[in-house]
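Sequence only, no structure available. Ideas?
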Amino acid sequence: MATDAGLRVLIDFHYSDFWADPAKQKVPKAWAAMKLDEKTAEVYSYTLNALTELHDAGVDVGMVQIGNETNNGICGESTWENRARIYNAGASAVRAYEDAMYGDIADGSEVMVALHFTEPNTGVQSAIAANLDTYGVDYDVFATSYYPFWHGTLSNLQSVLGSIAKNYGKKVMVAETSYAYTFEDGDGHENNVRADKASSLDLNYNISVQGQADSVSSVMETISIPQTGSACSIGNRHGFRYRHMMKTQQMRRKFWHRISRNGRLTVPGGRQAIPMSMIRRMQDATMEEAPGIIRHCLITMAIRWSRFGYLSMWIPVHPRRCART
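Reply:
I predicted one. Tokens follow.
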């Protein structure tokens, strides 16, 4: 679906039998008895084989995420020495895939390696970036989750990512974000954002469709603020070219026409608010104009590209699930 629309896809490997987050980084049961050398070999082969199968199925992969919110570990490993080996095994597989698909490059210009963390408000990400550097971890993009009701101010987010981009020469990305548009319960499970809890959360915008759009737009604008130095830029100068994202002008016009009605993107999971200003500018954007415009959705999860990073926004399975995160 995404490739047919001229979009590239981000693949997120959790390397776990269950959803991985800072509290849960359990090794897959099939790998539980393996020593570290065996596990890194499995991470490499699993990653490379999965990417190859996706390619053979016609999926255009543009970025690969090695782990999900790996603040405290990955694939059952918690020491930095061991974590670095897991990260590098996954990254090596991505480089091998890029080399096989695009020729002798393996430099992230066609398929980037992202590492994903969370809690930018705690100060931990500076230490994480330093450890990645100390242990020689190979990656292109430092990604973070950012939920405004949990993770502090936008100015802090910009400061944290800008510092990492400047100090380590990495691109930066918001890999997860959301904002509720209603307090209404849509599935019988308690919402994280609900009326009786609102006073204890940082809700900077109204709980409404417009409030949700404003929140997401503000995150996009924050990521787009020029950082000190240009290493965090994802643009033509760094080889991740707009022509790979939307391969023809006709594709771009068709895609943005689909979401022009009432500023919403219609997808199988529901409708997502999109700023009308973005729609108007993107419908007629040329290749030359594209680097200066906050970008279109990268995949059906609505990952957007801006001059200084990626932004991802989860589209819910159920239209009301935006009230949950």
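The CA atoms of residues 40 and 86 lie 6 Å apart.
Hope that gets you unstuck.
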